[in-house]
Predict the structure.
Amino acid sequence: MAFPLTRTLTLTTTASPAAVWHAFSRVELWPTVIPELLAARLEPPGPLAAGSRIVTRATAESRGSDITYDVVAVEPPRRLVLTVGDPAYRAKMEYGIATDGDVTDVIATSTLEAVGFAQTFRFLLWRERLTPMLIATARERAQALVALAERIGETG
């Protein structure tokens, strides 16, 4: 298995595509469903748009780290692409929203790529741990945002 490492999963919900999009675009609500987040905000404030940034703060209990996502593509209510740049890696999260009858599919594709030879070598050594972590993180985030969409759908 070479890098970049890419995994895709599909979650199905009865929430409407509009509710799903609302869950993705209202980043300040993310901490209400993602336990490891203390805060999330969109910079600059306003509607979610390509070129925006999503700045998150992790809780101390989560032992996670603060992450800034660059918003690469916004196609309401069908597609959102976020990237994370780090000196050691690049990550990309692409979310597609599609309807199939009376259900909505959320297709989450996560890609992880090492930066530089040394990090690529580390990633190759750690791939047995990285693959399940990539899948678990993508699933947890997507499930949390689907839960938020279902809550939004219930409240209108």
Summary: The longest strand covers residues 89-100. The mean pLDDT is 88. The beta strands are 5-13, 37-43, 53-58, 67-75, 79-85, 89-100, 103-114.
